[in-house]
Design a protein that fits this description.
Elements lengths: L6 H44 L16 H44 L1
Helix pairs in contact: 1-2
Length: 111
């Protein structure tokens, strides 16, 4: 680092970089959430259609004919819940890091 370079400016630029990265990450998560909501609407519509009396698996039909679809949807739902929980954890980590960097920047500005 040269004598003319101010450490607070370098920290501020690093903070700006992290904020941009966080904004990009949040935009990606927002896009994925919208896609997931659209997929959920499709699945709700398919489930509603499957729940009609003509498609009721409890009526006289071959045993287990409708169970595969429900089980697949339940597995997918569980997987999506796990992915959402992972996304929450990663977002929390990013926010914690951002808070830390902001505190470090504020402490540097007070000196």
């Amino acid at each position: 680092m040269s004598d003319s370079e101010r450490p607070d400016l370098a920290a501020f630029e690093e903070l700006q970089h992290f904020i941009r990265m966080l904004g990009d990450e949040m935009a990606a998560w927002r896009r994925r959430a919208h896609e997931a909501e659209a997929r959920l609407k499709e699945l709700d519509a398919a489930l509603a259609q499957a729940a009609t009396p003509a498609n009721d698996p409890t009526t006289e039909r071959t045993a287990g004919a409708g169970n595969g679809t429900v089980e697949a949807l339940e597995r997918e739902n569980q997987e999506l819940r796990q992915r959402l929980e992972g996304a929450r954890a990663r977002t929390k980590q990013l926010l914690d890091r951002l808070r830390f960097l902001r505190q470090q920047h504020e402490m540097g500005a007070e000196r």
